[in-house]
Structure formats: C-alpha cells, structure tokens
## 1
Amino acid sequence: MFMRVVFAVVGGILPATLPAMKKIHLLLCGFLTLLVGGAHADATNPPPVRIAVWGLVHTHVHGFIPRLLAWPDVQLAGIIEPDRALAARCAATYKISPDLFFTSLDALLAKTKVQAVAIFSSTYDHQRVVETCAAHGIQTVMMEKPLAVNLAHARAIEAAAKKYDLRLIVNYETTWYPANQAAYQMVCEQKVIGGIRKMVVHDGHPGPKEIGCPPEFLEWLTDPKLDGGGALMDFGCYGADLMTWLMQEQRPTSVFAVTQQLKPEVYPKVDDEATIVVTYPQAQGIIQASWNWPYNRKDMEIYGQSGYVLVPHSDTLRLLKGSAVENETTLTPPALHGAAADPVSYLAAVARGDLQPAGLSSLKVNLIAMEILEAARESARTGKRIDLPSVP
C-alpha cells in the first residue's frame, strides 16, 4: 500500500509535459528515495540488533557474514555450527573470536541474547531450525532460499509462524537487484505495459561442482533428500518467487515441468536441467533453471499487453512501450539504500519491528512458490501436467 501511495504522490507532482522516459526515471528515483527515507525517519540510534548465524554449509553465508560484521547497527551474537573444522576455518577467514562459535542454540543462549537468526543450513533443516528458534522465543528468522525442501515442511514452518507469531524472511539474491524492484514498480504499480501475459525467468550457472562450490555445500546440494532436487530446486525457486510476486500473489492453475540429467556422471542423484511452465488464467510463466548454462545468469523478461520490460542485469532495464522495437529504451534504476538494499539491513529492520516481511521475502509468496516447485517436481516425475486446486 505504501508503494502505491508514494508513486501516486510522486507521479502527481511531475509535470504532464515531461517526456515519458524521463518521467519513469524520476518516478523510480522518487519512490526509492522516499521509501528509504521513510524507513529511517524515526530512527534515533537504537542499539545494534543481535543476530546469530545458524549453519555454515550454505556457501551464501560467505556473502552474509562480511556484511553483518561491517554494518554499524547490527552485531554478531554468535555462530551455530557443529562441524568444528568448518567453524575454525570461518573464524580464521573473518577473524572472528572462537568464543562466538557454538554447537547448539542452547549453548549460545546460555552465554548471550539473540534477537534474530539467519539460517545457512541445508534446506531440509529449515523446518527444525525454525521450530527450535520459535520454542526459544526468537521471533525473527531468515532462511536462505528456498523456504523448505518440500510443501509438507513449508506447511510445518507456516504452522510454527502462526503459533509463535514469527516474522519469517526468505532471502534471495535477486530480491536486492535494483532492476527487479524497478521492474515491479513499472509493471505492477504503474502498469506501463498493460497486463502481464508472459514471464520468462532464466537462472543458473555451469554447475555447482564446475564453479567450485566447497564440499560441505555440494554434500547436501546434490542430495535429493536434503535439497529436494537439483537445478529445479536450486534455481527454479528464483523464478517461482519472482513470478508469484509479479502476479500479486495469485496462485497458478497448473504446472508442467521437464527435468533432465545431462551430466549423470557428475550429478547422479538429482536433475541438472529443468524447465517449468506455470499457467495463470490470463498469463504464462516459463522458468528455465539449469546447471548447464555456459555462464552465470539471473535475468528475466516480462511481456505485457502493450510492451515489455526486460531485466538483463541486476542494474539494467530495457523498456518497450508499443510494438516498434526501435523505440526500446535502456534504463539504469537508482541503487537501493537502507533497509531495502540488502538482507542484513532488512533482517535488522524486521527484528526491530520497523518492517514486516513482504513481497519476495514474505512467507505468503514463498508458500505459493513452494506449491509451484512441488507441482513441478511431481510433473517431472509423472510426465503429466499438475492442476492446482483453487484453495491451497
């Protein structure tokens, strides 16, 4: 609601004579400036939010810890990791005191207080960790994507959230892309290309082993029980999350998927190639998730009734209004700042009560994304289209 109000206000003060592209750029800048300013307007130097990290086996943790250590308004309360060798490597890499490493949440809480937990375990362990945090009174929890290993685990996490009034965040790298946030405003709020008719999301890389993922990550990432699948889960979740967000939390009517093992000698237990077709009453989404791309990619295309918005890079947009492709315009959205800019700031803001998890990070969006992934997995197994019930 806040986003719509800000855009209406900013849009109302722009002269009608401004060129369309200039107006769109100013709208984006104005929205993001007001959003960031509003998030911090009432801040009066509150004490740092104490955040614990649970698990070191998800390699994305190595993007999170440096941010956490560098941010002035957060503090590392401790790291829970039962693998002592892995904990020792982490301590040496980031020059963290060994006293901040624990083998369990109980051991950590016996020494210090925790306001929020960031989970970097296997996806299978998300349910257990969330329920453990809830039982210990920790109400703000973030897990690295996806929400859960399957829909049953996701429903259990939902039940814990309702019972204990948890604030849950699901973190995706793509949430913090300025171009994705700008694309949402243009397509869903300003409707510059009319109603969405087709979405195509490409995610992946040459393969986790090929790009050098460490053994502790590969061990569970390529295990069908601990990860729920291969490329379909690892990268299909990005598309399911983005499409659910763009479709305003609308549940699809059907899902059809095809998976392959193009490298069975490397990944004998899980798929390394997946294509998922997600059908809505008036739109279609195509998710292309792969461990076989010749390069790393996370990009998307959004086609509407009267044009398109393409997001080829995290900081670049290509906009076409109408059908004359020579009129395509390339835009560079403003950088994100404050609580909307990165997972550490967002987690801290939620823990302080300044924000409620929303959009790409929210439990509601990610429950629908899990429905899509579960149906895709079943479709790939059976070779049949999976029709989703009208009520979950």
## 2
Amino acid sequence: MPAPAATLIATPSRTTVSFGLEPALNGFHSLMLLIKADRLYGLDEWVTRTVASLPKEVWHTHQIVLDGLYHAVEPARSYPSFPAYIDDLAAQDPSLLRDRLFEAYSRHPLLADKTDGKHAKAVPLRDTSYLLASKKAFLSYLRERFSPEYLNEEIEAESHGLLKNPPAMQELIVSHLRRMWSEVLEPEWKRVTPMLQACIDAYRQIDFSGLSNLDAAYRVIGHEIDEWLQANVEKAERVVFVPSAHAGPYIGKLMSKQVVWLFFGARQPDGVQSTSPDLSRSELLVRMIALADDTRLRILHLLAQHGELCSPDIIRMLDLSQSAASRHLQQLGATGYIKERRHDGAKCYSLSSDRIDDTFHALARFLQTKGSSAGSPIES
C-alpha cells in the first residue's frame, strides 16, 4: 500500500542535512520500484528487466509482501546492510508487525475528505478485530482510503489471510526478502555501489550549512516537491539524501518521526567537477529518455505554443486516456521539463525552458569531456 499520508514530526531547533548510501533503505526502495514499474515511465531499465525476469510465483509473492503488507515491512531506521534489516524483521514479534500495518492504515484519511490535493485529518483505528474477522470489511476499509489505481484487491484479499496468521505472515516476508536479496539485489548492489558512492562524495563537496531543509532539497532535486512532502521535509529534524541507481527522475521517500530519507536519481551535481563519467551519463539518460517519446514531445510543443494548459485540455487535444496523460506528465514534471500548479481544482502545466536548455548544454559538456572512458578513442 502507499506510504501513510501524515506523519507527526516535531519542529526541530536545528536542521541537519546529510548524504548516505543507506544500503538497507536503498535496497527496499529499489524493491518498491518493481511494484511501481507499470505506473511510472522512465525508471532505470534494471527495474523493468527485473520485473520481466521474475518467475510468476515470485512476482506474486513480491506483490503481497511489498504491496499488500507494505506497512509491516517498511523500515523506519537505518541498517548497516539489507541482510541486517531482514534479520531485524525475523526477530520481531509477528503480531507487532501486523499491528504496525494497522496503525499506518489508521493514519490514512478517507478519500471523501481529501480536497484540493491536501490530506484531511485521519480517524484513529481503535479496534481491528472486525477487520480481521471479515475480508469484506477489510477491503471496504481500504477502498475508503485508497484510490482504485493503488488498490490491488486480489493481493489485499490474500494479505488479509496472512494478517490473521502473523507467524505465517512473518515467515513469508522473511523468506521472500532473503531470496530477493541473494538472487536479485545483492549482485546489483555490488555493481552500483561505486557510482552511488561517487555521487555522495560529489555532493559532500557542497556547503549546505546555510540552507534550510527545503532549500537543500531543491538544490539536490532540481525542482520543487509536492506540498505534503514539503511540509514533512521542512519540519524534519534530519533529512538524509540517498542516491538511487534505479529511481530515474522520481523522488522516493521514507520517514520516521525524526528523519526523512529522500531518494533521488544518482547524478553529478552542478558546480562540482566531474569525477565519474557514469554519473554524468546516468543523469543525461534520465533526461533524454523523457524526451525520446512522441507523446511527451507533443505535450512540450503544446505548452510552448499555449504557455499553459490544464490536464483536461492536454487529454482532449492529444486524444489521450487520463492514465496515460498522467504518467507522461508525471515523468516530464519529475525530470523538471514542466512546472505544475493547481487552478480551479485542476492541474495546469507550463514549459520549463531553462531546464530544456540546460539539458542540451549538459549533453554538450559531456561530449566535450576529455580523459574519461566515455571519450576514449577506439583503437583500430
């Protein structure tokens, strides 16, 4: 299930911004991207390749563990490694894992109470017995809080059976995560760690001491984040930026009461001399992939002609389905090519010409870079 809509975070007296590999949280985030592969355009090819290669039964279990039981497995602190995170899950009381899931659901407001993209106050869930006793009541409870786009009722129905048997739930979680680590994540983690560390080393050359949490987030991400995440980042005692090899242009998040972890696509920061051709190439790929699609180019062309258009206008002018338009606009927004604002309840978009110009300047800089493996001559 999606992350909870509200997290109470005390206002700090002093903010702290840092960068870290966060191997356990990074791995968890990558596993979550597999669940989102059919809803997000432009993720790293490792995501789509992994989804396609998983045996059917493994993929089904993955959906149960990372979607249906998300809040039971969601990490809320750092771990030295992904196996250490799994060992912690294995050592916990199974009933507490289940209670954590219901506690997270109780923080999620009713869909009917959400207006203008803001989240209404949630109603605490004081009694879970009726939800455990009735699959129908459980699914009805979820329908009231999650839109159909994010609610897989088949998976939730199976998850309900596991919630009634916490030891079996815990055994499935632990065995699946151990398998995903050994067969999927571990080799990939070894491959991408040098690039991620190079990204962290580059960002650590930048002085963030005079910036607020939000200013630091904008400096790293390159564009604004949504209002709800802004509020949580602004109030966090600590913000940890975690480079991801798989997130593409999208921003991921995990939160505790004190810390917000923000996952961003690994890239070479502006103003820091390039130390890793892989980082520069990775960022360029994310940007160019967003442009390498006829529909997205047509959207950008429309915005260049009209200045600003709202989503219903774009859907009508390009004869798109609402879901397809949403995914294209989400990718363009995440890559920074368009700006979004709300007007009379609709999302409206305008072109970010500076971002497009910067993309082609970045391409020129990359192609002119000397001394890197990307620019090495080919021997005849």
